[in-house]
UniProtKB/TrEMBL annotation:
<keyword id="KW-0067">ATP-binding</keyword>
<dbReference type="Pfam" id="PF00583">
    <property type="entry name" value="Acetyltransf_1"/>
</dbReference>
<dbReference type="GO" id="GO:0016747">
    <property type="term" value="F:acyltransferase activity, transferring groups other than amino-acyl groups"/>
</dbReference>
<dbReference type="InterPro" id="IPR003806">
    <property type="entry name" value="ATP-grasp_PylC-type"/>
</dbReference>
<keyword id="KW-0547">Nucleotide-binding</keyword>
<dbReference type="GO" id="GO:0005524">
    <property type="term" value="F:ATP binding"/>
</dbReference>
<feature type="domain" description="N-acetyltransferase">
    <location>
        <begin position="344"/>
        <end position="487"/>
    </location>
</feature>
<keyword id="KW-0808">Transferase</keyword>
<dbReference type="InterPro" id="IPR013815">
    <property type="entry name" value="ATP_grasp_subdomain_1"/>
</dbReference>
<dbReference type="InterPro" id="IPR048764">
    <property type="entry name" value="PylC_N"/>
</dbReference>
<dbReference type="GO" id="GO:0018169">
    <property type="term" value="F:ribosomal S6-glutamic acid ligase activity"/>
</dbReference>
<dbReference type="Pfam" id="PF02655">
    <property type="entry name" value="ATP-grasp_3"/>
</dbReference>
<dbReference type="GO" id="GO:0009432">
    <property type="term" value="P:SOS response"/>
</dbReference>
<dbReference type="GO" id="GO:0005737">
    <property type="term" value="C:cytoplasm"/>
</dbReference>
<dbReference type="GO" id="GO:0046872">
    <property type="term" value="F:metal ion binding"/>
</dbReference>
<dbReference type="InterPro" id="IPR016181">
    <property type="entry name" value="Acyl_CoA_acyltransferase"/>
</dbReference>
<dbReference type="Pfam" id="PF21360">
    <property type="entry name" value="PylC-like_N"/>
</dbReference>
Length: 489
């Protein structure tokens, strides 16, 4: 299989992702209107094309696809998308699939005014936006919105001609400056549709920014949503981010898929303000935030290749690991998150009961499903063992551990409970709590540590083996006992 990227620019990492996926079974070709492109260095073949709006652009691509047996075309540039969408059938006639959303979907994404109107109509929250300078100023005077506001091109990309105005004088100046910038850059092409209404004024939200990869298959069927919390931006693109598990963002992604009917990736910018999700912008293509999803275990290139081959895609191919942080450099760099952890003992039985009630829901089966009375359970561990609570720097509960240290005959501590909030998994919370528990066991005269784990809990068994525990015998037909000899450091 041979794949061609158009308008590839500096997305060499995407070229590398697809090369790794294809291996020896195909080639990755890249095309750009300028040969000054880092992606040219890593692709199997490269070609310089006419400009996107050149009358020969599509003819050139068609001839290249025929000559090089290209099976699929993927564009990485907003301006390129509508041109390819309009000519999709011409590529199909020569046996080449253009992985692009329908023209109407691309228009909604590229035209930020249509984005506002369409999402508002569909009941999806979006910042208040004006297409008229007079209407914006009137609403600011009336208190409907307040400064600062953002001034930006209606058909914009990245951070080109985007300004923040803190008063009316700045608003008028930046409005005029944005118009000049549009006319002096490639933004003038799409803006020519309605140059007099090519600038938007939008309220500035104060909240946490997230990026979504909303993934559909090639038939526009929803598959999944990957959410990332943004730590830093550069030139309008995500520069540093961490994958998160936020159900409200997953739900938003599914709703966007339902109303947008896109193909492959929909790159979405979202602000969360007081638990309310606002969509800022959308791009119907691989966005600058995808590498963070890929670093977290998502492999959309592999899924695309499988879909092109009419093969099924295993769920694991598009499942992310949470709390994976990355930052863009010359190459992608994996960063280790090191949150502040405060691990301490809970001495009060009532507080222990509250904590068990909070953390037991993350277990399968839960304590309640196993018929355990949590009040009695908490009192028993407080009396005959220890309960450790792990919180972060702002006192959010991260994990809870319960253990017995009263077996003075066998000198064996027994782990009864360990649960980590899903939002903090992947941050070594369980590891640090176990280390603290083992130290506490030694302080209480214990020489061994024992625990019971269900046979179906593959991840749990792997974790305890990593911590130095070994399976010693069956506890029940559904569980094992695991054991470790404790040693002073």
């Amino acid at each position: 299989m041979n794949i061609l990227f158009t308008s590839v620019g500096r997305r060499s990492y995407l070229v590398q992702y697809f090369k790794e996926t294809l291996g020896d079974s195909g080639e990755v070709h890249v095309a750009n209107s300028s040969s000054v492109s880092p992606a040219f260095l890593v692709a199997d073949k490269s070609v310089v094309t006419p400009l996107i709006y050149d009358s020969e652009y599509i003819s050139f691509l068609l001839e290249y696809c025929k000559s090089n047996h290209i099976d699929a075309v993927i564009s990485l540039f907003d301006i390129d998308l509508p041109i390819l969408a309009k000519n999709k059938e011409r590529f199909e006639e020569i046996g080449t699939t253009v992985i692009v959303s329908d023209y109407e979907t691309i228009e909604i994404c590229n035209d930020k005014w249509k984005t506002f109107c369409y999402l508002k109509e569909k009941g999806i929250d979006i910042p208040v936006t004006f297409i008229s300078l007079d209407d914006a100023i009137s609403s600011l005077h009336n208190g409907c919105v307040s400064y600062p506001v953002m001034v930006k091109p209606r058909w914009g990309m990245g951070s080109i001609a985007v300004f923040e105005a803190e008063n009316e004088e700045e608003l008028r100046i930046f409005y005029a400056k944005t118009m000049r910038n549009i006319q002096n850059t490639y933004l003038k092409y799409e803006s020519a549709v309605d140059i007099e209404k090519s600038i938007l004024i939008q309220e500035k939200l104060k909240g946490q920014e997230y990026g979504l990869d909303v993934i559909d298959d090639l038939n526009c069927n929803y598959v999944t949503t990957i959410a990332k919390m943004k730590y830093a931006m550069r030139s309008g693109e995500t520069d540093c981010a961490v994958t998160v598990d936020k159900p409200e963002l997953k739900r938003l992604g599914e709703k966007l898929s339902c109303v947008m009917h896109h193909r492959a990736n929909l790159d979405v910018d979202v602000f969360v303000v007081e638990d309310k999700c606002y969509v800022l912008e959308m791009n119907a293509r691989f966005g600058g935030g995808y590498p963070f999803s890929h670093m977290a275990g998502v492999n959309l290139p592999l899924a695309i290749v499988k879909w092109l081959n009419n093969e099924s895609v295993e769920k694991s191919v598009l499942t992310e690991r949470v709390n994976i942080m990355g930052q863009k450099d010359i190459q992608m760099v994996r960063l280790q998150i090191e949150p502040q952890m405060n691990i301490g003992k809970i001495l009060d039985a009532d507080e222990a009961e509250r904590q068990f009630l909070y953390f037991e829901k993350f277990l399968s089966p839960t304590l309640l499903e196993r018929g355990i009375d949590i009040k009695s359970y908490a009192q028993k561990i407080c009396s005959h063992g220890a309960i450790l609570s792990c919180k972060n720097g702002i006192e959010n509960p991260m994990g809870l551990l319960g253990m017995y240290v009263n077996d003075k005959d066998a000198y064996t501590a027994y782990l009864s409970f360990l649960s980590v909030d899903p939002n903090f998994r992947g941050l070594h919370v369980g590891k640090e709590m176990m280390k603290k528990a083992e130290k506490l066991a030694l302080e209480n005269g214990m020489r061994n540590f024992k625990l019971e784990v269900r046979k179906s809990n593959i991840n749990g068994i792997a974790f305890y083996k990593y911590m130095g525990y070994e399976v010693i015998e069956e506890a029940t037909k559904d569980s094992y006992y695991m054991w470790k000899e404790l040693k002073e450091n």
